[in-house]
Amino acid sequence: MLSLQDEVNELMASLQHIARGMLWKRRLPGYLFWNRLRFRREYPAQVRELFGIQFRHPVGLAPVLERQDELLDVCDSLGFSFTGIIPGETPLQIVAEHLQARKSPIVAAIELRADGASEEDAKRRMIRQFSLLYDFADYFVIDVNRESGLSSLDDFSDWTELLDELLSLRLCYERYRPILLRIAPGHDEEQMRRILDFVLLSGFDGVIAPGLAKVRFCVEYTRNRLPVIGSGAIAQPDEAIALLQAGASLVEVAQGIPGKPRQTAKRLMKAIEQSTNPQP
């Protein structure tokens, strides 16, 4: 019997395989059209407006696929309403071109990560990505948890300077782009209180919280004053419904439903629609 970690690894390998196949399949005539017929649905009752952006429904895809900036229209054709992109080593000009070339209404977020670099190099890299991609992204997610020291409460104050700099830099642009902060799975309640206090006072537009317990904590602590996106591995539709019922505004899927990952958004939205509009 596979362990839970083995199942997650197998599922991620499946999603990566799908992504690699889609890179060439998306160029086939009618591929996106048939994908949309099979997997994409409209849910007028589930439209959400969050920090000035309209989302077709609350289910999106976390930045988990290779070269996800090339798959924006494919993610839309699979039924997701938003997705994240990690620039990584891809030239920023190429990422910007892919964002500009999308033909679907999918909402795209740029996720800025420290990626284990030295503190100063990580900060310079994140500021550069933010500046050059600002006009092309719909919103930004700041994730400085990846081996960067933010997971340590003592080091969080070191990152507030960078976060304040990004918020100040946003004032230089004509159009407003929301900025969210991603909370790490390892943050305890004391760390989360400090982070949420900073977010509420500084002008961040929301947070992304991993798992049901942290979503509940964020919603209760901020008293619904801050949009919360629930994120995590969604193995069953009930898990997505639980995140929304706990107060999450959106659900960010980090791994697809086992067995049929292409149908993840469709299956989740069918269950969410039924839970909010039960049949008599």
Task: Explain what this protein looks like in three dimensions.
The chain is of the alpha/beta class. The chain has a single domain (4-276), classed as Aldolase class I (TIM Barrel), CATH 3.20.20. The protein contains 10 helices and 10 strands. The strands form 2 sheets. Strands 3-10-9-8-7-6-5-4 form an 8-stranded parallel β-sheet. Helix 6 links the parallel strand 6 (139-143) and strand 7 (179-182). Helix 7 packs across helix 8 (212-222) and helix 9 (237-245) crosses helix 10. The protein starts with a helix and ends with a helix. 39% of the residues are buried.
Q: Which radius of gyration do the C-alpha atoms yield?
A: 18 Å
Uncertain stretches of 5 or more adjacent residues: 1-9, 148-154
Terminal CA distance reads 41 Å
Q: Strand pairing plus helix content: what structural class?
A: alpha/beta
**What is the name of the CATH superfamily?**
Aldolase class I
Tell me the overall shape: globular
Percentage of residues in helical conformation: 40-55%
Element order: H for helix, E for strand: HHEEEHEHEHEHEHEHEHEH
CATH topology: TIM Barrel
Count up the helices.
Answer: 10
Annotated CATH architecture: Alpha-Beta Barrel
**Percent of residues in beta strands?**
15-25%
**What is the CATH class name?**
Alpha Beta
Q: Main β-sheet, in a few words?
A: 8 strands, parallel
- Number of DSSP strand runs: 10
- Rounded average pLDDT: 81
Strand order of the largest sheet: 3-10-9-8-7-6-5-4
